[in-house]
Input
Amino acid sequence: DAGVIQSPRHEVTEMGQEVTLRCKPISGHNSLFWYRQTMMRGLELLIYFNNNVPIDDSGMPEDRFSAKMPNASFSTLKIQPSEPRDSAVYFCASSFRGGSYGGELFFGEGSRLTVL
Amino acid sequence: KQEVTQIPAALSVPEGENLVLNCSFTDSAIYNLQWFRQDPGKGLTSLLLIQSSQREQTSGRLNASLDKSSGRSTLYIAASQPGDSATYLCAVRTGGFKTIFGAGTRLFVKA
Output
């Protein structure tokens, strides 16, 4: 299995530009999570999906952030317009959820975003 | 609201020492608890997963315990090595299947 795949690995953009981060979860996993990591705030859960449906987006910082999961093998996190304070590493993670069983969470390598 | 705390924030030990990392959480209604390792500039690597019905899990030199009633977990590392130097994160999966992370313990093992 290739694991969770994220792209791009690095993104440098200018303030005001649109940024799209992509994620391919592990095949067979039905839960997908987007996290943001900064030195100041650590790992923050932004949004998560179960069976492609957004369950909780209370961690999304502002309306500038949006996430979609059009199918079981693809998700995007979009920031429009981007701001310097959005600079962080964005991680995607996936797991299998069955009934009350909480499966192991697997992370991608992350997308390092720098907004100038 | 679930909160996860890890103590200590940083730890430096000589090679060969056995050590314990601590994780505490405020709400005992959890599905599972997972320990991760993160190397600088890298993603998170899963070390051990303990389901809510379990008390401990072991993998090689690592042993993780879970006491739901007291809201605590420990990660025991035996015979530490310089290659164990990394940040160790504890994560709790709560109701609704949110997974909340602690701030991590930065470990440095001196050769």
Summary: The longest strand of chain A covers residues 42-50. Chain A touches chain B through 23 residues (CB under 8 Å).
